[in-house]
Write a structure and sequence with these properties.
- Chains A, B: Keywords: Cytoplasm, Transferase.
- Chains A, B: Pfam families: GST_C_2 (PF13410), GST_N (PF02798).
- Chains A, B: This is Glutathione S-transferase.
- The structure is a homodimer.
- Chain A is an alpha+beta fold.
- The first copy, chain A, has 2 domains: about 5-90, Glutaredoxin, CATH 3.40.30.10; about 100-225, Up-down Bundle (Glutathione S-transferase Yfyf (Class Pi), Chain A, domain 2), CATH 1.20.1050.10.
- The first copy, chain A, has helices spanning about 20-35, 50-55, 75-90, 100-125, 130-150, 165-170, 175-185, 185-190, 190-200, 205-210, 215-225; strands spanning about 15, 40, 65-70, 70-75.
- Chain A has a 4-stranded mixed sheet with strand order 2-1-3-4, with helices on one face.
- In chain A, strand 3 and strand 4 form a beta hairpin.
- The longest helix of chain A is centred in the middle third of the chain and has 27 residues, at about 100-125.
- The N and C termini of chain A lie far apart (about 55 Å).
C-alpha cells in the first residue's frame, strides 16, 4: 500500500466523540498524527441519552470515543490507538508504539496507570472538598511526579519521538490549568519536567488541532462536578 | 532465531505468582502454550505483606503476576500476554492474537470486558447475600451469556485455535463450580455454550497444567469473602 493511500477517502473513517472527552482526544490526535482523514461525529455528553449511532456501535458500554472503519466499530481509547497504529502506522512507517516488546510493555503499563490511577484520582480531586480534596491533590501530584520519573530527561516518554504514551497523557493537560485553580497551586513549581513536556507536545500540529480551550474545559468540569 | 530457541535456558524467564491467582494463570498458560520454559516463584497472597522481590519488581502496584525476562519486569496480566506473544509467538509462529487488526481489537475489547466487568461482578456476587447476591448473580450470568454471544458456534473465541481471549477467560472457569454452589444454579443449563467451550479448553495441555483444583479454589474464596 502506497503511503499516500493512508487516510484516503476509501478508508471511510469516522470518529464519534465529544469535544471535551480526554479519552477521545487521544484518538483524534493519533489520527492526525498518522495523517488519517476522518469524519467527526459529535456526541454531546452533556445530555443524558446516547444517540442511536452510539447505542448501535457500542452497545456494551454506550460510550465514546468510537472509531468506525469501513463500517466496523472499535471501542475503548487505548484499544483504538493500538488499532490505528496497526492499520495506518504500518502504512506510513510512523509507529505510535515502539517495535521493541519491552518498550511496548512499558508504554502499555503506564497507559493503564494513567487510565486506572490518574483518572480516578483526578475525579476524586475535582469532586471533593476540604481534607479529602487535599489528600486527593497530594495523591494526584504524587502520580504526576511518578510520570515525571518515567519521562526523565527525554523529550517525550520514549525518546525523541512523540508517541503512544504522550498521546495517552497529553489530553489531561487540558485540565492542568483547572487543577491549579481548583487546588491553588502552581504545577510548574510542583512538576516542572511535566510542564516542559506539555509545552513540547503542544508544539505538535496534531495536539494543537485537537486540544480544547482550557478555560472551557474547566468550566465544563465545574458544572459536571458541582465545583463552586 | 531458530524456533527451538524459544524458552531456551538463556531466556531466563521467571513468573512470580500465586497458585490461585486467575490473572496469573493466564501468564502461565500462555508460557506453556508457546513452549517457553520458566521458573515459578510463588508469592503467597494469603499473607498481607509482599515479598522483597514483588516490591522491587512491581513497586507501583505491588501485585502479581510479574514476568521477569532477562532481569526486566513486565507487569499486568494482559500486558504480559501481549509481551509473550510479541517475543515468543514471533519465534514459534504460534500467535496468541490474530494478525488481523480488527480481530486483535475485538480480542482486546473483550479482554477488557472480562477484567473490568466480569471480574468486579464476580467479586460482588461472592461478597454479597440475599437480594444483592441475586442481583449480582443475574448480572454475572448476563455477562457470561454476552461472552457466549461472542463465542457463537466457534470452537474457541476466534475460530479453531485456542488463543488470547480463551487464555484471558479460562482461569475464571476454576470458579465456575464455586459459582454454582454459591448461587445454587447449574451453569450448564444457564450457559451451555460456555460449558462446551470450557471442556474444549480443558483438553489443552497448557490449561490442564495450570488450572487448580476447583474445590480448593472455592474453599480459598470462601475464606477471602467470608462465605459461610
Amino acid at each position: 500500500m502506497h503511503p499516500m493511500a493512508a487516510g484516503g477517502e476509501h478508508d471511510e473513517v469516522t470518529c464519534v466523540d465529544f469535544w471535551a472527552n480526554g479519552f477521545g482526544m487521544r484518538v483524534r490526535i493519533a489520527l492526525h498524527e498518522l495523517g488519517v482523514g476522518f469524519r467527526f461525529v459529535e456526541e454531546d455528553l452533556r445530555v443524558r441519552e446516547r444517540s442511536e449511532l452510539v447505542l448501535r456501535m457500542n452497545p456494551i458500554h454506550r460510550s465514546v470515543p468510537i472509531l468506525i472503519h469501513l463500517g466496523r466499530s472499535i471501542c475503548g481509547s487505548i484499544n483504538i490507538l493500538e488499532y490505528i497504529d496497526e492499520v495506518w502506522g504500518q502504512r506510513v512507517s510512523t509507529r505510535l508504539l515502539s517495535r521493541d516488546p519491552l518498550e511496548r510493555a512499558h508504554a502499555r503499563f503506564w497507559a493503564d496507570f494513567v487510565d486506572h490511577k490518574v483518572f480516578s484520582t483526578q475525579t476524586m480531586f475535582l469532586k471533593s472538598k476540604g481534607e479529602e480534596k487535599e489528600a486527593a491533590k497530594a495523591e494526584l501530584l504524587g502520580q504526576l511526579k511518578c510520570l515525571e520519573g518515567v519521562l526523565g530527561d527525554k523529550n517525550f516518554f520514549f525518546g525523541d519521538e512523540f508517541g503512544f504514551l504522550d498521546i495517552v497523557l497529553i489530553p489531561f493537560s487540558s485540565m492542568f490549568r483547572g487543577y491549579e485553580q481548583h487546588g491553588e497551586f502552581d504545577l510548574e513549581v510542583e512538576c516542572p519536567t511535566l510542564i516542559q513536556w506539555e509545552k513540547r507536545c503542544k508544539e505538535m500540529e496534531s495536539v494543537k488541532h485537537v486540544l480544547p480551550n482550557e478555560e472551557m474545559m474547566y468550566e465544563l468540569h465545574k458544572k459536571w462536578y458541582g465545583i463552586e
